[in-house]
Amino acid sequence: MIRHALDPDQLRTDIEKQDARWFAKAATRTRKFVRLGAFDENSSIWSTAKPAFMLLQQNKCAFCERPFTGPEESRIEMDLEHYRPKSAVAMWKPPAGVRPYPSLTGDASATGYYWLAYQTGNYAAACKICNSDHKGAYFPIAGTRCGDPDDAAALAAEQPYLVYPIGTSDEDPEDLITFTGTVAHPVAADGPRHARGALIIDFFGLNTRDQLHIQRAEIIERFGKALIAVADGHAEAADHSYVAQIRNPIIPHAACLRAFKRLWDEDQQGARRLFDACRNMLATRLLDPTAAGLGVGIP
Question: 94: Cβ–Cβ under 8 A, 6 or more apart, which residues?
Answer without folding.
Answer: 101, 103, 105, 199, 202
